[in-house]
Predict the structure.
Amino acid sequence: MKYEHVVVEQLRGYGRMLARLKVLQATPVGNGMRLSHVSGDDKLQELHRKLRGMPSKLYLTKREQEVEAAARTYLKSYPLGTKAQLREAKLLIGETAYDHALLRELTTGIQAVLEARVGTAEGIDGVLERLAEIQDIEQEKARIDEALAALEEYKATYSRLLRLRYIEGRAVEDVADELCVSRRTFERWRPQAVREYANLVGFGYLS
C-alpha cells in the first residue's frame, strides 16, 4: 500500500510542523515585533474601509490623488492585504513616464508601510517568504485536523489510534491499553485506520 507510507509520514510530521510554526511566529522582524504580529491582514485595512466612503480629496493631497488615480487605472485587482498590494504594485508598468513614476511612488508608499512594521526594506522579501511558509503550514495543519475530525465522526477509535500512535508517538502497547484493546486488535485496526484517513485526504489514488 503506497499510501500507508505517505499517511504515516504526514502524521508523524505533525509535531515537527507545529514546532516550525512556533519558531516562525516568534521570529523578530524589527521594531520589537514578531512575525506573528504581522501574519494577519493589516489593521490599516479597517481604516481604508472607513475612508472609502469619503471623497478622496478630503484626506489625500493632490499628488496622492494622482497616485490613487494611477492605481485605479492600472490595477486589475484590489487585494486587501498590504503585502498582497505590494506584490501587485511591483508588477505594474506605466504607459507613460509620468504614469510609471506614479506607480513607483505607489510601490514605495506601500513598501514604506511594511518597512515601518518590519524594520528594513532588505528584510521585507524574507518576511514575506516566512509569512508564506506560515500560511502553508497552517493550511496543512488544518487539512490534517479536519481529516481526523471527520474520521472521528464515524470511526472515533481509528482517529484516536492515529493521533496516539503517530502524532503523539506513543508505543503500540500504550496505544492498545489506551484504547482498551489487545495488541492483536490494534494491529488489525491500524491499517484500516490508515486506509480510512488516506481516502479522506485523497491519498487513495496511491494504492
Notes: The beta strands are 28-30, 33-34. The first strand starts at residue 28 and ends at 30. The first helix runs from residue 2 to 12.
